[in-house]
């Protein structure tokens, strides 16, 4: 037996010496310790600066071609010892309280450590022996969430890489459970369809098209003036689809919609799904975390009636991307979605082998994402999720009040979450002109970089869209944002 060890950038063995300098350096424990301490200090300084010292910039905007050239040059001539800090400086600072852009959480600092453990251990988790701890922890976490939802003892779930993949997996399970043909083994010759609000996230549309449903198989229900699914139209659209020979197997509720943050009436959709014997899925990627808020859990009333739902840990639960929980009311449905055999990996089993996760998801290898959930829960308890969601939703309502109190602005809709759509207005100007003004406002804010907000179009009207993701955002900063919007008008 030959024993190898690393010293002075060389790999030594009891019989031979191998001058593999780069490999030796890359795996040297002391080199890692030094770099790791330096990076942790830089990240701690970043947390402190962005959260506590009111920095001037949230984003340092650069045109794509210029940013591309910068990094091409850096690869050739940039200082290696400054690499991580340079990446930090060129990235959006989501921990800045003036970050109010996309639905990306300012991660709890401790999850940088759980991510480090995941990256270092690198347990793939396709089958149990590849990731024993992470697989068992995943079962603990998904059981915990199922209980919080109000599911019963036969429910279970899994974690996967993002809401898009989770929604697709859920719809595949729905098709398996509710259609008259076993599409997985026999293919599909008849027309299948799903029902979903016109305001639903684009990934639901994408999932349906991937599944071969086509345009006709995506039955989009018009939204009300409040931008949620018009439940009064459900039966009408169902019957129209049925007359066309389309077999509807699922209906999807948004909790909430991405553009407006408005929740569909989940109880009404649940009742309709039961009446028609179709699968009820909830896309709760953003707002499903409201189950943890004692103040706002009413927004997801009826969530326990879903057959499946998704909740993103990287949106409203302070975890790094990507980690999404996909939960099933009847856990056996997730075990029948993918009926496949791979002799080197997926052995047949007579029992419900929940611990062989590749049987239940698209992914074979995946990160040890369960340890983010477990670390937060073990360290701070579920109270931290209540505090986070409740604080952000409170801030959404507070910002809406500031908007409505100023005659220069109007809301698209009264918010139901931390997503607020508003625009600058002048009574004498038509919407077409106002659209251009609001587009220019957003671009000026982007280039200035102090605040980061995004934009959306709702029924042809251009709105500035704010998603308050940082619980340390203050009323004063929300007032500053409106001041900056007015300053950008001219």
Notable characteristics:
single chain, 490 residues, alpha/beta, Aspartate Aminotransferase, domain 2, Aspartate Aminotransferase, domain 1, 3 domains, seven-stranded mixed sheet, four-stranded antiparallel sheet, 17 helices, globular
Give an overview of the whole structure.
There is one protein chain. The protein is of the alpha/beta class. It folds into three domains: 1-42, no CATH class; 123-379, 3-Layer(aba) Sandwich (Aspartate Aminotransferase, domain 2), CATH 3.40.640; 384-487, Alpha-Beta Complex (Aspartate Aminotransferase, domain 1). It is 42% helix and 14% strand. The strands form three sheets. Strands 4-10-9-8-7-5-6 form a seven-stranded mixed β-sheet, sandwiched between helices. Strands 11-12-14-13 form a four-stranded antiparallel β-sheet. It is globular. The relative contact order is 0.13. Mean pLDDT is 89; it is low at 340-346.
Beta-strand portion reads 5-15%
CATH class of the largest domain: Alpha Beta
Pairing-aware structural class of the strands and helices? alpha/beta
Mean of the pLDDT scores? 89
Profile the largest sheet.
Answer: 7 strands, mixed
What's the arrangement of strands in the largest beta sheet? 4-10-9-8-7-5-6
Domains (count): 3
For this structure, the CATH topology of the largest domain is Aspartate Aminotransferase, domain 2
Question: CATH H-level name of the largest domain... which superfamily?
Answer: Type I PLP-dependent aspartate aminotransferase-like (Major domain)
Number of continuous helical runs: 17
How helical, in percent, are the residues?
40-55%
Which regions have little confidence, pLDDT < 50, spanning 5+ residues?
340-346
Overall radius of gyration: 25 Å
Distance between the termini: 76 Å
Q: What would the principal axes of the Cα set say about the shape? A: globular
In the CATH hierarchy, what is the architecture of the largest domain at level 2? 3-Layer(aba) Sandwich
Could you give the count of β-strands?
Answer: 14
